[in-house]
């Protein structure tokens, strides 16, 4: 799913966008402040976002609260069941940050299908397209 998101975000038709990948446990406020938009990915663990993504939000929330308002973001979630808690948690945090949902979340239960991977590609491309000058 990550590879499909990256392929969409780096499609040659979208120019002027630099994609920077950061594992959630290494994300710093400086990384978030330097970005113009965000694609978040997480497994749904025990009905919630991963601890790593929650940690990234915990570290970056207040330092980025006012400065990143209005920036677009996208989310993809993968779980075997019960992804609603992960979606709800990310929505609550990004709403507090004032980020703008660029497109519908991509939510996949079980093994990703070709249609799921296409949705991930579209997610990456949609967020990237909103960043072009």
From TrEMBL:
<dbReference type="Pfam" id="PF03358">
    <property type="entry name" value="FMN_red"/>
</dbReference>
<dbReference type="InterPro" id="IPR005025">
    <property type="entry name" value="FMN_Rdtase-like_dom"/>
</dbReference>
<feature type="domain" description="NADPH-dependent FMN reductase-like">
    <location>
        <begin position="31"/>
        <end position="108"/>
    </location>
</feature>
<dbReference type="GO" id="GO:0016491">
    <property type="term" value="F:oxidoreductase activity"/>
</dbReference>
<dbReference type="InterPro" id="IPR029039">
    <property type="entry name" value="Flavoprotein-like_sf"/>
</dbReference>
<protein>
    <submittedName>
        <fullName>Flavodoxin family protein</fullName>
    </submittedName>
</protein>
């Amino acid at each position: 799913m990550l590879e499909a998101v990256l392929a969409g975000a780096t499609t040659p038709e979208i120019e002027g966008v630099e994609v920077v990948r950061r594992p959630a446990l290494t994300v710093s406020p400086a990384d978030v402040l330097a970005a113009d938009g965000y694609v978040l990915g997480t497994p749904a663990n025990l009905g919630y976002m991963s601890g790593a993504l929650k940690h990234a939000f915990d570290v970056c929330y207040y330092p980025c609260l006012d400065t990143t308002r209005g920036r677009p973001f996208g989310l993809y979630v993968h779980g075997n069941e019960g992804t609603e808690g992960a979606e709800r948690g990310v929505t609550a945090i990004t709403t507090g940050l004032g980020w703008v949902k660029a497109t519908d979340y991509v939510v996949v239960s079980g093994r990703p299908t070709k249609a799921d991977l296409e949705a991930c590609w579209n997610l990456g491309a949609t967020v990237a397209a909103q960043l072009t000058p």
